[in-house]
Amino acid sequence: MTQTLNIVGGGMAGSEAAWQAANMGIDVVIHEMRPKVETFAHKTGNLGEMVCSNSFRSDDSEQNAVGLLHWEMRAADGLIMQTADRHRLPAGGALAVDREPFAETVTARLKDHPNITISHQEVTSLPEDGHWIFATGPLTSTALGEAIRAETGAEALAFFDAIAPIVYFDSIDMTRAWMQSRYDKGETEEERTAYLNCPMDRDQYEAFIDALLAADKTEFHEGETAGYFDGCLPIEVMAERGRETLRHGPMKPVGLTNPHQPDVKAHAVVQLRRDNALGTLYNIVGFQTKMKYGAQTEVLRMIPGLEKASFARLGGIHRNTFLNSPTLLDEQMRLKSRPNIRFAGQITGVEGYVESAAMGLLAGRMAAGDILGQPIAPPPDTTAMGALITHITGGADAKTFQPMNVNFGLFPPVQGLKGGRRGRKDRYKAYTDRAKSDWRGWLAQTALDAA
Prior knowledge:
The protein is α+β, with helices and mostly antiparallel strands. Helices cover 33% and strands 17% of the residues. The protein has 2 domains: 4-154 and 324-442, FAD/NAD(P)-binding domain, CATH 3.50.50.60; 162-319, Elongation Factor Tu (Ef-tu), domain 3. The protein has 13 helices and 17 strands.
């Protein structure tokens, strides 16, 4: 090929976009500024590095929209899902991975691809010509962010993404904690015991909430506002919304039985999930926080079983920038004012590793189609990827646009099915059956176009 596809950003979206385009015969250059230019959240220069969590969430492709997205990416020979399956850790019905070897494998496979070159020079402007995908994610550099803002003429939208703490397993008191997935979910014993549980009685829970509310928090810089994404709220923000909020969220006690006290029903339960293959690290599920480090250790050690916890990483908070995509991008994820530039990943207003990688997959294939002279239409909105791209490029209300996880609310209804909770199982199965059929059809058509 004489026309090169340039991809800025080597996270989930950029890595997947490069893989897809390269497999269609396109020469690709990945521009990843790390490790030359570091960010405060990343620890390495690896491609596909996981920052906030090691979970890709539910892997159920029949009853869950995220699991359906996993299925679609696997069917499209997706690099991110291939690598996640290779480095999978027990997590009940979820897909969690050993994050360091995951990123190392993504990096190695992209480096070894004959059509891919990697550059570590920072890109700070929007090019006038050539084929480009910007997949710079929530930590877009200041210079590039200013260039995007100048081009779009719009104020950058931002929310704050909080990182959960990680605990050393050998510092957890297993005479108080126990291993069990909620409702014993999973096909193997390892899956059914994938989570570590720390119970609280009512008094312990109330004291924990008091301490959480009183703890020192990270202050925002002047001009910043805390427009959090509801799927990633800091625990103290949830507590501020009501004392029972956490007990009905990440600390819900349902589906669990404490073997140390089988006759005592816990008032709340804190869950930890294995964070590496060795089982030496566990992250506290849903415990993103903006407490200052000293306050974090004091408050988190109030949790039964974590009284002597040692932390491999404490929680943190960072700004997460995204575009008002419904006004700025066309259905191909191209910048309307500069059609040679596509955006992909979290910067487009999707939330989550899987959603980011999925938008990279689509952007890579669409860009390759343009270079081949055979444009590829977006997938049907009955598929998970089609529902997401439709939402961010026009389905959402631009005035209230916020980052969105994939969910069945984005899908066109299946006619003739019962509504409400009682009909949900059949309804979700109908959504996923239809999506899989339509996704197979889209893949077949686009493969024919690109041949």
